[in-house]
């Protein structure tokens, strides 16, 4: 490690505090990611394989590479390395219970139903929504769609394929499993989501901190375990933008360690654990 400066971490690659700060600035401005200086060792270990893959010796060189316009794919590799894709079917089960008992009875009277899974990872979240909806509401003449977005094109390819190891599907209720999940003939260890489920979902690449090229309004937005990576300002802007995209009475479901705060808060009432409902008329402003 002879190249390392005084503030570089011990290891294979030189990583100075200045490199870390430049990386944190880029991660924040392009992706909303919050990297406190305490995360420097974690960032080093997560990105070391990218430097190895690109044949680089220093984080300074990696930053120079990320700066090039043609390195958009590497910038996505950066997000992938700094966040996780951990997800599962019917994760945080109480949200699906609320969807079933509080929202679906209202949706039954609607001709148009729109739900957004924002930060859908490999698809288990939108497929869980699709099963809950289809179980209660046969599509029939209804215009029913789930939009499922993520920043990571590789994870979206998995989501679109809709094939999962059988043991991952154990959290799908047995009744739903027998109705919509099917074996994949060529890959016996995998289970495939049925065509009725796939037909409900549109998968699309979207960086949540950029423009959203769709109008809404949505009846519900699931954005769970995504904002946790963002700094407070980015989180609060996101809640306000979700409020604009929800209809009055629409639900916002967020992750177990996330909290709604900031200017959007008076516009929502609580409707369960990490569950919020957009008010028709905003309540009194909250102290920040
Ligand atoms: C931990 S997964 C959450 C999956 C699912 N929502 C759940 O709770 O099970 C976080 C996802 O957020 C995505 N993500 C991170 N930053 C993002 C951004 N700026 N815009 C959109 N998606 C982002 C990641 O690619 C990852 O798939």
UniProtKB/TrEMBL annotation:
Origin species, per record, is: Alloyangia mangrovi
What is catalysed by this protein?
Answer: L-glutamyl-[protein] + S-adenosyl-L-methionine = [protein]-L-glutamate 5-O-methyl ester + S-adenosyl-L-homocysteine
| EC number in record | 2.1.1.80
Keyword Methyltransferase listed? The answer is: yes
Q: Where does S-adenosyl-L-methionine bind?
A: 85, 87, 91, 125, 150, 207-208, 224-225
Q: Which SUPFAM superfamilies does the record match to this protein?
A: Chemotaxis receptor methyltransferase CheR, N-terminal domain, S-adenosyl-L-methionine-dependent methyltransferases
This protein's name: Chemotaxis protein methyltransferase
Q: Which GO terms describe its biological process?
A: methylation
């Amino acid at each position: 490690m002879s190249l390392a400066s005084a503030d570089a971490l011990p290891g294979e690659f030189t990583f100075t505090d200045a490199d870390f700060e430049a990386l944190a600035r880029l991660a924040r401005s392009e992706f909303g990611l919050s990297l406190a200086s305490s995360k420097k060792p974690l960032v080093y270990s997560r990105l070391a394989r990218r430097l190895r893959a690109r044949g680089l010796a220093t984080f300074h060189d990696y930053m120079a590479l990320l700066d090039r316009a043609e390195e958009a794919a590497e910038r996505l590799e950066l997000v992938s390395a700094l966040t996780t894709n951990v997800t599962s079917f019917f994760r945080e089960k109480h949200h699906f219970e609320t969807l079933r008992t509080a929202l679906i009875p209202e949706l039954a009277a609607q001709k148009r139903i729109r739900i957004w899974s924002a930060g859908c990872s490999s698809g288990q979240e939108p497929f869980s929504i699709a099963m809950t909806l289809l179980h209660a509401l046969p599509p029939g003449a209804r215009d029913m769609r789930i939009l499922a977005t993520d920043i990571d094109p590789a994870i979206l390819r998995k989501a679109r394929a809709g094939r999962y190891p059988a043991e991952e599907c154990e959290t799908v209720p047995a009744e739903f499993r027998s109705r919509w999940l099917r074996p994949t003939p060529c890959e016996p260890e995998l289970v495939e989501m049925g065509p009725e489920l796939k037909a409900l979902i549109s998968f699309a690449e979207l960086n949540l901190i950029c423009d959203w090229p769709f109008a809404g309004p949505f009846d519900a937005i699931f954005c769970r375990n995504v904002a946790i990576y963002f700094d407070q300002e980015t989180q609060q802007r996101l809640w306000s933008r979700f409020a604009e995209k929800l209809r009055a009475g629409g639900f916002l479901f967020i992750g177990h360690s996330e909290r709604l705060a900031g200017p959007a808060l008076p516009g929502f009432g609580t409707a369960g654990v990490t569950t919020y409902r957009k008010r028709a008329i905003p309540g009194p402003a909250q102290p920040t």
